[in-house]
Amino acid sequence: MAKKQTNTTEDPKGQVENILAELGKKIDHLIHETKGAKDEVRDEVEKKIKDLKKKKEKLEEDFNNYKEKNSDKWVDAKEHLNLALDELRKALLVVLKK
User: Fold this and answer.
1) Domain ranges of the chain
2) Rg of the chain in Å (alpha carbons)
3) Which of 29, 51, 67, 77 is the 20 to 30 A CA-CA neighbour of 20?
């Protein structure tokens, strides 16, 4: 079984998940900060926060759909790569025996 990548600089999925998590934290921080604001300001900020939350949820949904749709492609590509590596291994064994 292949080792799961933990370095997010090499794992685009990890980068996107980290960005979405950070965005959620920032939205929560904005909500906390607006609790002490004047009513008029708070209402405007809360409206913008709701819009941000909707956009974030849409991004998460799109990303999860992308991951689901493309997981089969990765499995298929991985199988082809393994076959190609086996063929290369066989060819190297032939060359090394000579």
Assistant:
1) 12-97
2) 23
3) 77
